[in-house]
Design brief:
Elements (H helix, E strand, L loop, with lengths): L2 E6 L9 H16 L7 E7 L12 E4 L3 H5 L9 E4 L14 E6 L14 H14 L2 E4 L2 H10 L7 E3 L23 E5 L10 H7 L5 E5 L4 E2 L2 E2 L1 H12 L5 E5 L3 H10 L2 E4 L8 H8 L4 E4 L4 H5 L4 E3 L4 H16 L2 H12 L3 H12 L2
Parallel strand pairs: 1-2, 1-4, 2-3, 4-5, 5-6, 6-7, 8-9, 8-13, 9-12, 13-14, 14-15
Antiparallel strand pairs: 10-11
Helix pairs in contact: 5-10, 8-11
Length: 358
């Protein structure tokens, strides 16, 4: 019997968020590889209405915008498999007969100040999802260890399937419309406290001949720009740091150009379940300078350079000691690129499709 598989892509409501990018990866994969006649399952997609028909008639579409579906799980069609591609979706299956695959990216809400008031509520909701899950998947060993330490898994297996990383180096980039000064360092992510971008401001002052471009939308709380984003902009203005530019959200084509033309990726993040920009930058043979927090040492492996602390002198030393040496070692760069290619989209989805067909 061909199984009915629902994949929750409601995160497409914000394609510039990390979860939104993951959901786009699913769309891209299904567009290229899903065939209802040969894939072995019938696909249902739960997504915003403006993404309806992305697969033509090959899939059945359910609107994550629907008030009725958001407030009554019983209106969903009966499916055999339900895959939540991240842990914070408001949707979950109502039938105990449905095989529920729950992917957990991180438990950042336990550590971020802005979630302090809601932490217990989020935690209880996630425990309830774990209670009904048939398969629990984490995106890194670090995330799995965090889940095991903070939840009662009731003896259930918790597997690791690394995030899929699109092969950006095979695509054409487009230079951003604004003037880009070169050489430049690149950083990318939502402008929020856990990304820790402010530590780069004192660092870039040490490199007046280089520019720092930070791409990413500003984080909003209650429809107001977060104090963290405002603090960074205020520091840039008050301290007259002329070699830093906040680009805001960039298109995929612009992101590709920035990776391809930057001198290095700087990733000072405090909390990551995976660390997608690391692998994206490595696809282009670029050095990655990263914090040694959470999952980043696991994902960066021996192909990234790590800051043990955020003292400006220490950060500069790591950068100075490794930047020129990196580019002087073509064999290491080739190894790094091959390492990044291991995080293929096909490998990721092959593992999930095995779960769909169990």
């Amino acid at each position: 019997m061909i199984k009915k598989v629902l994949v929750d892509l409601s995160a497409l409501c914000d394609i510039y968020s990390g979860f939104g990018q993951v959901a786009l990866g699913y769309i891209n994969y299904f567009q290229q590889h899903y065939n209802p006649d040969t894939s072995g399952y019938k696909l249902y997609l739960l997504l915003p209405q403006n993404f309806f028909w992305v697969l033509g008639k090959k899939a059945t579409y359910l609107s994550s915008d629907s008030w009725w579906l958001r407030h009554s799980m019983y209106l969903f069609p009966q499916v055999d498999v339900w895959h939540s591609i991240h842990q914070l979706s408001r949707f979950r299956p109502y039938s105990s007969k449905t095989q529920y695959i729950l992917t957990i990216h991180d438990l950042n809400y336990l550590y971020e100040k802005e979630y302090k008031a809601k932490c217990s509520k989020i935690h209880r909701r996630l425990q309830r999802k774990i209670d009904i899950a048939s398969n629990i998947v984490c995106i890194s060993e670090f995330a799995r260890n965090d889940v095991r330490q903070n939840f009662d898994l009731k003896g259930k297996n918790c597997n690791v399937i690394y995030n899929q990383v699109k092969s950006l180096d095979q695509l054409m980039g487009v230079k951003p419309k604004y003037y880009i000064k070169q050489p430049f360092f690149f950083a990318i992510g939502v402008i929020m406290e856990k990304k820790n971008f402010h530590v780069l401001l004192d660092l870039i002052k040490r490199y007046p001949d280089k520019h720092l471009y930070i791409a990413g939308k500003e984080h909003y709380v209650a429809n107001l720009c977060s104090p963290y984003a405002e603090m960074i902009k205020e520091r840039i203005r008050k301290e007259n740091i002329n070699n830093v530019t906040l680009l805001g959200a960039v298109s995929e084509e612009e992101k590709i150009w920035l990776y391809d033309n930057c001198e290095a990726l700087l990733l000072p993040s405090l909390l990551e379940g995976f660390g997608l920009p690391m692998i994206e930058a490595m696809q282009f043979g670029k050095p990655v300078f990263s914090s040694n927090k959470t999952s980043l040492p696991e994902i960066g492996n021996r192909f990234a350079f790590f800051w043990d602390n955020f003292d400006t002198d220490s950060m500069q030393k790591v950068l100075d000691d490794n930047l020129a040496n990196f580019y002087a070692n073509p064999n290491f760069i080739a190894e790094q690129i091959n390492y990044a290619k291991a995080f293929t989209t096909n490998r990721h989805f092959e593992q999930y499709e095995q779960l769909y067909k169990q």
